[in-house]
Structures are given as structure tokens and as C-alpha cells.
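User: I'm curious whether this sequence folds into something compact or stays loose and floppy. Could you predict its structure so I can see for myself?
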Amino acid sequence: MSPQEQAEQRRGQRLLFVSLLFAVLLNFPLLAVFDHAGQLGGIPVLYLYVLLAWLALVLLTGWLVRRNNEQ
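Assistant: Here's the prediction. I'll summarize afterward.
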């Protein structure tokens, strides 16, 4: 297997791990933890959690894809 093929395989594995991680983060048990009447800066905690998890997903995925393209 060539180094390029190995890099592509590792990239795919990392992206799969990220997608599974965020499937867990955005699943019911963790969402239930943040589903209460509290607010942080006037924003409901659940909305803030989902927004920050989504932002982390986008940033991490972009970083993984860009980092592998530069190599």
C-alpha cells in the first residue's frame, strides 16, 4: 500500500470517528442533560449546547480535511 493510500485510509478513519463522536454528542442521553430551564447569557442551555457541538463538528471536520490536503 502506497503512502498516499495509507493517508487516505487514515483520513477516512478519522472522519468516521468524528461522525460517530458527534452522533453520540447529539443523541438523547446527553441532550437530556442540557434540557432544563437554565439560561446562559439569555440563551437556553440546550440551544447553546447544540450550537457549540455543531460548530465543533464543522471546525474539526474542516481541520481534518484541510490538514490532509496540505500533506
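Summary: The chain has one domain: 3-70. The two ends are 17 Å apart (CA to CA).
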